[in-house]
Amino acid sequence: MNKRDTVLSLIDKNQTPVRTPAAFFLHFPPSLHFGQGAIDKHLDFFRTTDMDFVKIQYEQNYPVLTEIQRPEDWADMPFYTLDFYKEQLGVVEGLVKAAKKEALVILTLYSPFMCARHALADDLSIEQHILDNPQAVKKGMQTITDSLMGFVKEAIHLGVDGFYHSTQGGEHGRFDSIEPFNECIRPYDLALMHEIEHACIFNILHVCDYNLPYADLAPFVDYPGHIVNTNLELVDRTLTPREVAKLFGRPFMGGLGRLGVLAHGTPDQVKQAAQEVLKSAPDRFILGADCTVPSDTPWENLKAAISAAHAR
After folding, report:
1. Per residue in 186-224, pLDDT tens?
2. What are the φ and ψ backbone dihedral angles of 204, each rounded to 5 degrees?
3. Gyration radius of the chain over CA positions
4. What's the CA dihedral at 175, 181, 183, 184 to 10 degrees?
5. Which of 15, 212, 242, 311 could form a disulfide with 9 if both were Cys (CB 3.0 to 4.6 A apart)?
6. What is the pLDDT of residues 17-32, one digit of tens each?
């Protein structure tokens, strides 16, 4: 089986996975965000580490809009056409052509809420805007969702196999109740997720704790995605890969923290940590980190973890 078949066997209940896949992700320097340099660096990382699919980093962040100061200003959120995403789509096209025959090609997709946060100046809070006037903020969220939908459809047209859909908004401390999330974040997440669920063969739901931890993953259990990736460390307890897989009813990806031994240990220490995770992991499992690892993480460490998974 090639890498495509190996990963797809995880979600085919009629097949027994032949080995445990593994994958890790990091951001490359700004000079390698776009163009042929970005394509070459993604391929180099994929082949050097021997990871099991190509995951394209998303680098086309929304610019900060100083004109958005109040909730009512979200009505003026610009609609970004495909021209805005042109350089990012160029990387997608290049990697699909270069790697799709040997591995699945997965594209990072930030949620509308995450893109909205990128568009605000650091001293402003979209959370406060949502609390003050959710109807006003929803106008901007819809514009962002419509823009991202165009990007998603074009990426699908170019041949990506799926998306690594990153979502936030339901973390502990973000809001005092679940209502703001359900009203102003969830519907826009699901609009994009249902589109990629319909069109793609392999999507990863990433419940992202980059900014804040989670006390409860329940708000996301019915989100689409063939695989779920999240941190096992919650506010008041630690989950196991088996518990997350059971909770979401699908295979889990993760097991290793992005800031621990992966970032600071030796390859031998990483191999040992990976083996400990693998001992109790489900059969249908992808070894990975809880999120994007620091950019200076040694590639040798990631290769050591991936080798441990392949030897399971």
Report:
1. 999 999 999 999 999 999 999 999 889 999 999 999 999
2. -115, 125
3. 19
4. 90
5. 15
6. 889 999 999 999 999 9
**Exposed e or buried b for every residue in 19-53, given b needs 16+ CB within 10 A?**
ebbbbbbbebeeebbbeeebbebbeebbeebebbb
* Cα separation, 240 vs 71, whole angstroms: 40
Note whether 289 and 24 are within 8 A (CB): yes
CA distances 205 to 61, 100, 229, Å, are 20, 21, 6
Give the chain's domains with CATH numbers: 3-310 (3.20.20.210)
Which of 300, 236, 238 has its CA nearest to residue 271? 300
Name residue 44's amino acid: D
Query: Cβ contacts of residue 123 below 8 Å, gap of 6+?
Result: none
Residue 236 DSSP SS3: coil
CA 88 to the chain's CA centroid:
16
Which residues face 253 on adjacent strands?
229, 286
Q: Closest Cα partner for 34 from 62, 61, 63, 60?
A: 60
Residue 163 phi/psi, 5-degree rounding, is -135, 150
Instruction: Give average pLDDT by consecutive 10-residue segment, the chain, 312 residues.
Output: 92 90 97 98 98 97 95 97 98 98 97 96 92 98 98 98 97 95 98 97 96 94 97 95 96 95 96 96 95 96 98 90
d(CA 285, CA 160): 22
